[in-house]
Amino acid sequence: MRALQAGSSPTIYLDERSVFDIGACVVDGIDIAPGRAIPDDGDPRIDHSLEGFLFTCGPDHIRHPQPIAGDENGKRYPLHGSFSSHPAEIIDWVVSNGNAQAVAKVPVSLVDGGTARLDRQWTIDGKSGEIRLEDRVTNNSDEARPVFHMYHMNVAARLFDDAVRLSGAMFENGGFGWRFGQEPGGVFCVPAGEGPDGWAEMTLGPIAAIGGRTLRVAFRTDTLPYLQMWRNQQDPAHVLGIEPVSHRWVDRADLEAAGEFDMLQPGESRSYGLRFSIL
Questions:
Q1: Are 274 and 218 in contact (CB under 8 A)?
Q2: Residue 158 backbone class (left: φ over 0; alpha: ψ -120 to 50; beta: rest)
């Protein structure tokens, strides 16, 4: 992994072995990624990715495995799609004038035999400490295919106390404590809404273990119109996930039946955006 940092930003470690996702995310010497405090989902790609602060699901599937329609051998879309474990080719890596940028392309082999490409750009504004991610997914196959996208931002819940809250317009009553749902964990998915600039925003904090800082996350709602939240405190897991996502939390077949597949024609692209700061 390669470390990227500028000005007042945290240090993020970009994983060239797996889609240029973020492994460690270090704030004042403390890695806020969960590490091995994660569930074992039986898929080594996802175990590797879950350890880090951010990994990406898609482009052929999100969430848990589902059968591939028409496959006579019962083949299934893998857990969280095909992105994880695809190596990234770094195109640009620049740290100058107090800012930073890293650009990569990722050729992706889809489980049903198709191909796609992820073009990814990380940008750090050193003055504000904000980290920005711009993604473009292109269908390189010779036929139209649905595209899905989800960002998992996984935070080590060992760092939380009872003062840590989720806040955002998409949450009931504007927010609540981080221990939502039934113990020892839970999942929910809500419409993200939309801010005045076409982005939704939420916060998690204050986190006393990193000096009372708050994690602020914003994402494009034109292509990521939902926010899924996940937490798992089932030993040995101790993790909370912030998950901007392209589709509702229902089975793939239900999305197709409702006409909610986002189809990409051959050569067509779809773009996604995320930004975060820890201040």
A1: yes
A2: alpha
